[in-house]
Amino acid sequence: MNIPKLQKLKENGTKIVGITAYDYSTAKIIEQSGVDLILVGDSLAMVALGYRDTYVIGIDEMIVFVKAVSKGAKNSFVVGDMPFMSYNVSLEQGLENAGKMLKSGASAIKIEGANNHLLKLVSRCVQSGIPVLGHLGFTPQFMNTLGGYKIQGKTYESTIKLLEWANRLVDAGVFGIVLEMVPEESAKYITDNLSVPTLGIGAGRYCSGQILVSDDVLGKYTDFTPKFARKYANINDVVLNSISAYAKDVRDNNFPSESEIFKLPEEEYNKLREDKYFVN
Asked: Each residue of 218-246: pLDDT tens digit?
């Protein structure tokens, strides 16, 4: 997958499939499923590291996970999420950290918002060969400014504003835009009036594609499940039942079994039995 192919999917009306990944083994499986885009999202701060929100994670931590995912999904289009304050201080800081993402194995970066600083940064990144995925609607890194987890684009005026911001991002050079927690009708209006693909997460059925957090899809993260996230498995129960069964087998001396152990050759065992410290 690459940017021209993603654009072609939008033009053909073929839905783009995106999902997050945070580790090597999961990324390897996800690549085999045939998704179009893998995002190493800053959501890993909560689902993988146990932080209370996405504000806490830094660029160095994100790069560890980008490297792992890129190794597991070598042939996939991997997007590295730029964490809070890793691109807000200056254009130089943002460009340097974006470059670190690509050097770590990402194919592109994702940034949240569309203020003048970010528009300039998008332009500088694209000019430097760093593809950028935009992110509008509910932007978690602006949660304190927005007043919490609130749906965006709930009025005609705010929808028009979102479209204006989206077009500014497109003019700056983004290859696509994530729309998060936006009413379906607003997301459709924005998508229909953009030249680049949109990826919805809680933005209804009419975006160019969808993206979800893999831990939600797999039923692995149980602290909170958003309304828009559909569970396709219940990994939490699978893991819990498996580890509980393992613990029981250990305590009942049923693990390891005869087929799961290594044994000495008989002559070496006999020598050991003759040792004065051997216990029957």
From this structure: 999 988 889 999 999 999 999 999 999 99
What are the Cα distances from residue 96, in Å, to 36, 37, 132, 174?
Answer: 27, 23, 14, 18
Token reading at 245: 């069964």
Number of C-beta neighbours around residue 126 at 10 A: 15
- 128 with 99: CB under 8 angstroms? yes
| Confidence band for 203, pLDDT divided at 50, 70 and 90 | very high
**Cis (ω within 30 of 0) for the bond into 226?**
no
* DSSP structure class, residue 98: H
Distance CA 44, CA 230 (A): 18
Q: Indicate which residue of 96, 180, 185, 267 is catalytic.
A: 180
Give residues with Cβ within 8 angstroms of 150, minimum separation 6. 138, 181
pLDDT, tens digit, 9 for 90 and up, residues 45-93 = 999 999 999 999 999 999 999 999 999 999 999 999 999 999 999 999 9
Is 184 one of the catalytic residues? Answer: no
- In three-state secondary structure terms, 139 is coil
